[in-house]
């Protein structure tokens, strides 16, 4: 597999020699290659789980706009509340005094601390004292107050290793589906790159699987640099690699083996 990865990156036109691979090898390649994209996350998880920046920003925004109350008070590590509420974020819910969606991970503010729930089961509980979260004004929109409660939630989240593992598994399958979509699109586009070369769809698909290796490794570099939002660069590269590969395919008279 390593030889095919290196060949696909350095000389994509050689992918035609992998077109006879069994489908089992093709799909194994498709499922294994996206593993490189979650490697940075695995390394971070093994060293020190850290909440993603966008998640922290989502919490801060929610605390500012949707999580302010007149009858909720945190004083001397003890919370009192007269109403219940749940707000839904992209990855989990945050609530006071209720679990609105039991099958979604919920961080619930309770009398003595913050509980973590899933499927009506408490997975963890951290006291306000352990979080150094002594007092809080739930009516305030001051940046220091918003940061205070956001950091408390961040600290609780970063203790939930299973959430990091679950998010990583979900992200892995998203990468696999994304990779398959790119391969399928490039398989279709490859007929436009080489209209004079008649190659069966299944052969084009197998070739595109290997030629699209650059898509994974380009995204890998972007993830390491924190620039995954620029993954359009990877699409440009994978198109360029297909153009490179198909331009080098030569047509020979019937009966002769094609060469690259």
Structure description:
With 260 residues, the protein is α+β, with helices and mostly antiparallel strands. The protein is built from nine helices and eight strands. The strands form two sheets. A five-stranded mixed β-sheet has the order 3-4-5-6-7, covered by helices on one side. The chain is elongated. The model has no long low-confidence stretch (mean pLDDT 87).
Lay out the secondary structure.
Elements lengths: L1 H9 L12 H10 L2 H13 L5 H13 L6 E4 L2 E4 L3 E4 L4 E4 L9 E4 L3 E6 L2 E7 L8 E2 L5 H15 L3 H33 L7 H11 L1 H12 L7 H16 L13
Parallel strand pairs: 4-5
Antiparallel strand pairs: 1-2, 1-8, 3-4, 5-6, 6-7
Helix pairs in contact: 3-6, 4-5, 6-7, 6-9, 8-9
Which structural class do you get from the secondary structure elements? alpha+beta
Number of E strands: 8
Q: Are there runs of 5+ residues with pLDDT below 50, and where? A: none
The average pLDDT score comes to 87
| Strand order across the largest sheet | 3-4-5-6-7
User: Secondary-structure element sequence?
Assistant: HHHHEEEEEEEEHHHHH
Cα(first) to Cα(last) distance is: 21 Å
Compact summary:
The strands form two sheets. A five-stranded mixed beta sheet has the order 3-4-5-6-7, covered by helices on one side. A three-stranded antiparallel beta sheet has the order 2-1-8. The protein contains nine helices and eight strands. By secondary structure, it is α+β, with helices and mostly antiparallel strands.
